[in-house]
């Protein structure tokens, strides 16, 4: 590996940095976008069951908010009804939408960085290719003829950087698309859960 890095020249170092950053982002997103941390399947049913006859205590709502991303959205709706017993449906929806926007921002965190790496890595590889071609052309001509060592180094720089740029970009793009799809699914699940919770909570405002 060290010999490959030496043969690729200095243009490969930005690509190595991109590969390390992309790997860290992928691991972080895999951890943060797990279903249990975002939208547990039975969480909404449990909330509706617990609040079937009365609203929960504040400590229960806090535990719900700490449960997951979906839990924070549902807890915002419960807090809105607890703090304002005569809340209108529009204001309740606004509270849920505000919490939903915060949740979406949390889910999409670092995805733009991963997408940027996927787009930039081939360009960095192309930069290395251009630098290698410059060395190749520089090895030709002159009073003493061509320089085989410089020619070989230029070819190595061009080929290694092109290959490494694609090696970094392709997995980064694949995982970017994968995480984007998961985020879209979670957003849909959160929206549907909020829609189910609104009429359930409005029963308490009507009763009061």
Automatic annotation (TrEMBL):
**This protein's name:** MotA/TolQ/ExbB proton channel family protein
Family indicated by similarity: Belongs to the exbB/tolQ family.
Location comes to: Cell membrane; Membrane
Species source reads Caldimonas aquatica
Q: How does it sit in the membrane?
A: Multi-pass membrane protein
Residues spanning the membrane: 12-30, 110-137, 157-179
Q: Where is the MotA/TolQ/ExbB proton channel domain?
A: 67-191
User: Does the entry feature the keyword Cell membrane, yes or no?
Assistant: yes
């Amino acid at each position: 590996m060290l010999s490959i890095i030496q043969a690729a020249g200095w243009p490969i170092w930005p690509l190595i940095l991109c590969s390390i950053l992309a790997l860290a982002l992928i691991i972080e997103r895999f951890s943060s976008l797990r279903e249990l941390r975002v939208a547990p399947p039975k969480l909404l049913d449990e909330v509706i069951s617990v609040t079937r006859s009365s609203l929960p205590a504040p400590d229960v709502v806090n535990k719900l908010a700490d449960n997951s991303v979906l839990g924070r959205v549902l807890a915002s709706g419960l807090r809105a009804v607890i703090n304002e017993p005569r809340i209108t449906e529009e204001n309740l929806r606004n509270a849920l939408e505000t919490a939903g926007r915060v949740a979406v921002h949390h889910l999409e965190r670092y995805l733009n960085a991963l997408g940027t790496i996927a787009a930039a890595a081939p360009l960095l590889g192309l930069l290395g290719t251009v630098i290698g071609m410059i060395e190749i052309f520089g090895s030709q001509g002159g009073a003493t003829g061509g320089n085989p060592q410089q020619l070989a180094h230029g070819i190595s720089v061009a080929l290694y950087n092109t290959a490494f740029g694609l090696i970094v970009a392709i997995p980064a793009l694949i995982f970017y698309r994968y995480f984007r799809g998961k985020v879209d699914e979670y957003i849909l699940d959160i929206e549907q859960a909020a829609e189910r919770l609104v009429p359930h909570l409005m029963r308490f405002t009507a009763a009061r």
